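Hey,

Quick one before I head out. I ran the complex with iron/sulfur cluster overnight. Inputs first:
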Amino acid sequence: MVFYFTATGNSLYAAQQLDEELASIAHELRKPASERHYQAKAIGIVVPLYEFDLPRPVEEFILSSTFNTDYFYVVSTYGMHHGGIAERVAARLTTAGRRVDYYNTVIMLDNALNVFDMDEQRKLDPEKRVDEQLAAVRADIDARRHYIQPATQVEVDFYEGYMKKPFDLHPHDDDPLYHVGDACIGCGTCSRVCPMGCIRIEDGRPVYDYDRCANCYACIHACPTKAIHYVRYDEPNPNARYRNPHVTLADLIAANCQI
Ligand SMILES: Cc1cc2nc3c(=O)[nH]c(=O)nc-3n(C[C@H](O)[C@H](O)[C@H](O)COP(=O)(O)O)c2cc1C
Ligand code: SF4
Ligand code: SF4
């Protein structure tokens, strides 16, 4: 059994390669914690890496659910640098009472459109050999390998350097991160792909409630008219958006839709 969280489909695709029984964390989080008890021979968590860490709702899900399993694994998908997440987060989860048997990372396309041009990112994709990485992780899991990916000094330096001067990526009610421009046609796609149910459509326009925003960019990437943009940072390419090529818009809506 594998739980996934996804904004643009990378982690959904990765989860599909690792197990046949999938469950969406966005959906599971709608249940009260008292109903979130899971039992399986192996249980996995496959999620994107945000600022060298787990997405906040994913950590909330792991810590507030119970997992009855012989083998608990976590895979973080990322785009450029993982910052030694496996050692750091496995230690944190262990301290919080969660046993982690396996933690690995898989490099895929980087969907951080506040930093990267998605068209340029697509050109790097073949070098990342995603399917080879996923096959290796699958073999590890099938063999119930015990492994926590070591944090190299290069990755620790990236993490520590970033933490000295992180981006302010988190939206606030009084200082929104995203702006919806005149190109909006009121289609509602942004609200349907939001894993946290933060967007409602009023008078044909999206209205954000940032309280539970996971800062995942699903809304920005999925907008068919590219009407949603950053307010606080200039995007390298406001006309380039991304969805994993193996994943359809309908898949993302099925994974995330809260309405
Ligand atoms: C807010 C945010 C922060 C991110 N931070 C990092 C990062 O620190 N390092 C990195 O290599 N990739 C980073 N990424 C890229 C994603 O981890 C990567 O593209 C992931 O595979 C996306 O998965 P998804 O398609 O399932 O949403 C970030 C993406 C977002 C949206
Ligand atoms: S997805 Fe884009 S066009 Fe559709 S409602 Fe949202 S902002 Fe408007
Ligand atoms: S509002 Fe946008 S960025 Fe925030 S959780 Fe929803 S889809 Fe992700």
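Residues 130-142 form the longest helix (13 residues).

Talk tomorrow,
K.
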